[in-house]
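Sample 3 of the quickstart, ligand adenosine-5'-diphosphate:
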Amino acid sequence: MNPGRMMDYPLTLTHLLERARRYFPRTEIVSRYPDGWLHRQTWADTYARAGRLAHALRRLGVGPGDRVATLAWNHHRHLEAYFGIPMMGAVLHTLNLRLHANELTYIARHAEDSIVLCDRSLLPQLEAFVGNVPSVRHIVVMADDGPTPAGKLDYEALLAAESPDYSWPTLDERSACAICYTSGTTGNPKGVIYTHRSNVLHALFTSLPDAVPVSQRDTLLPVVPMFHANAWGYPHMAANAGARLVFPGPKLDPESLLDLMERERVTRSAGVPTVWLGVLALLDANPKKWDLSSVREMIVGGAAAPPALIEGLGRHGLTVTQAWGMTETNPLGTIARPKADMDGSSDAERLAVRATQGFAVPFVETRHTGEDGDVLPWDGERMGELEVRGPFVASSYVGDEGKDRWTADGWFRTGDVVTIDAGGYVRICDRSKDVIKSGGEWISSVALENALMGHASVLEAAVFAGRHPKWDERPIAAVVLRKGAAATEADLAKHLEGKFAKFWMPDAYVFVEQIPRTSTGKFLKSKLRELYAGMLTK
Ligand code: ADP
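Result:
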């Protein structure tokens, strides 16, 4: 007897773009070019251009599984690559344009990229390394700030010569669709391969109302770069829902972003804390300049969001919600939403919850383990390494590198030191490579930074380990003061007093112009340690 069962319908990106084209053909994709001009096309155009791109790439010799790289800002052509490349069965490899030529050489060689689609404005970056990558057969120029130089393949000319109708193959949902490298702050960068299935499941679970809700009524502005972990899934979520997309191109300064949000009536946006800290500072200086009444929520992630940021944007009527994720988790893992049973709670209580990294979205499991590998209780106190698993968590790196990042029972070790409370809320205390261990006890640099950034004169603060003759390590705070503001070491120490155990208090403060950052906008504490770790003598 036939037992009866559901269809084995593959979860592929093809369905997402076909759905957007079929049901939302006129919904717009807006892209700001470097000169400020706003380019507009629709989901129907995007579908047709993805078809032309697939034909053009096939003509250039791209076959199933081949890696096609992009070196590009956020714009409609990058979106076409996001879909056209995986839908033809090839693999999209987004190169991080902020990396050094040596790192890009390593990554492009490791991924064996065959073709690079490159913004004209980024050709100098490409030319600094591409000669050392023998697998690259063609460079295709996306002319954003002027015409394609003679002798080079031009993206628009290639597309114009092709038909928009491509007969998309039926793909195995478990086949690779994209590859992204982690920053590799320790050791070489590691490649993470996303599958059609992982990207689709991520888009579905991430779009739920308690995660990052996305509807066909939304206008999304992903400030997060498209080379950073799938642009946090926004291109996929937008196609799935039929949402409108606004791409900022290379201009990511607060003023340009606020202008774009106002002009295009953006409803939802996402970026790292630095982006929103800049926006907050500008709004504080010009509170009435922009009409942001369309904005429903901004997501902040990639690094800890200080409560002062969440509160500060709240004063301007803006809601910023913190999420945690990694390249290895597609990326969304947890998001900080107060639960319904907190509805009667005070603003301060809600802020305390919103300042955590939140609890897991469906199909992500979290746990944390102590130094002996024991799974720790969810008591909000015991610190341990966060481990995750789920259908959109990587199960290995390209080439089986970094195998020690997975436990024997198949969980991914995140390298984040956290507490988890009874409600499942994860709180990041540090990245394991940045932890401060004083006399055998962990001190949470993130907690100290958050408190310091609550001081009216402090724009940014990063707390890192200084070497200490007696305690091994002691905290040092690097502080950037707001323009025109003043604060002494004693003022800052006084501000922290009573908020933490005495042994958590920084031993020293250094006042700096800016905090060094990684290519994805995080505090680069290894640099701070290199510069200042030796300054403590007693
Ligand atoms: P990179 O190694 O380039 O920083 P990822 O973007 O994958 O690559 O970084 C993931 C890491 O970013 C996490 O392991 C965590 O340390 C940090 N992170 C992400 N979101 C948050 C957040 N909301 N709060 C604190 N740290 C975060």
